[in-house]
Amino acid sequence: MANERKGRREFLKSSVGTAGLAWASIRPAAAAAQTPAPRPARLRFAAVGLNHGHIYGQTQAVIGGGGELVWVYAKEPDLVAAFTKRFPQARLARGEQEILDDGSVKLVVSASIPDERAPLGLRVMRHGKDFMVDKPGITTLEQLAEVRRVQAETRRIYSILYSERLENRATVKAGELVRAGAIGRVLQTIGLGPHRLNLKSRPAWFFERERYGGILCDIGSHQFDQFLFFTGSKRADVVASQAGNLHHPQYAGLEDFGDAMLSGDGGSGYVRVDWFTPDGLSTWGDGRLTVLGTDGFIEIRKNVDIGGRAGGNHLFLVDQKETRYVDVTGQPLPYGEQLVDDVLNRTETAMSQEHCFLATEVALKAQRDARLLTRPAATSRPVDGLTLTASR
């Protein structure tokens, strides 16, 4: 139990540091200029489930959009202590039910263990509240079917915060450029989501596939969301997918690599995700997105420019006239405010329910149908007097 608590603390510390890395790498003056004052409180909300550090970004997004954080609940005292240190205004609930029974609470946010997120969302919607959850918001197709059914019955909001798009200034700006026709009609997206493994900081559930849903379901969900968004696809098929454990046999439940080819009614796409970011990189992963259009392309380096520019949020635009670097300093992140608006006005400005569920469905089908990749066998052969070890 002590080791589990230590693992949770290390994981939370690592997650919070990762989530805040882009901010930390921005010049202080620029960071201050990009942080608008929160809107006056317009609705009361609560946080339930704190197992991933993304809960801090989720909570801050709602506060920035006009939410008043009134409750928090989690089973782990150490996670609650860290959360309430950051958000002391949150009152500790005696249990989940106390929050669900509070009629003044309109929204619940959660970053609980992935396989527990959909069941929590069902309980939240059945109590007349809206739900915003970290990705992956749903880990099986059976969960998705039940969430779709209850959402249709209750007409509550079930929103998944795909932070690589919605909380990344360069990606938000890219969406604006695409809608303005900067690269013509979008043909394809390539989404790369490498992550650093940080083995010592990971809790036990991180290595249990049934708990995190598999690599394409988990970190791949960001890329499926971006594919649908930038191509404007309302229908999508998985052409091919594969996933497996290529380098960590001591963790049988871990998938450390996955990729997929996609076809939608608005374009095609390729996704690759992995846990192979080397320690020599200054950030947790060189996340990239390329959007190819008929008249140009956009490339986003989300977290680092290995060419030398400091910080994250790097956007490059190439069209028929020039190649240019687009400064996204001051670019608004509207998701939090839009979500609060949607809760109050029963609208779909932050994310349509159709898009939310389709991105999840494509990710889950890619995971379900993925061809199993296995670790290649190593062979040794002499080359010019040296012995090289290679994989067949």
Explain the overall architecture.
The protein folds into 2 domains: 161 residues, 3-Layer(aba) Sandwich (Rossmann fold); 178 residues, Dihydrodipicolinate Reductase, domain 2. Helix content is 36%, strand content 26%. The strands form 3 sheets. Strands 14-13-12-11-7-10-9-8-15 form a 9-stranded mixed sheet, covered by helices on one side. Strand 1, helix 4 and strand 2 form a beta-alpha-beta unit. It starts with a helix and ends with a strand.
Give short descriptive properties of this protein.
Dihydrodipicolinate Reductase, domain 2; six-stranded parallel beta sheet; alpha/beta; 14 helices; 392 residues; 36% helix; Rossmann fold; disordered N terminus; nine-stranded mixed beta sheet
Q: How would you summarize the topology of this molecule?
A:
Layout: H1 2-19, H2 21-24, H3 28-34, E1 43-48, H4 54-64, E2 67-73, H5 77-86, E3 91-92, H6 96-100, E4 105-110, H7 114-126, E5 130-134, H8 141-154, E6 158-161, H9 163-166, H10 169-179, E7 186-194, H11 209-212, H12 220-231, E8 236-244, E9 257-264, E10 267-274, E11 288-293, E12 296-301, E13 314-318, E14 323-326, H13 335-345, H14 353-368, E15 371-373, E16 378-383, E17 386-391
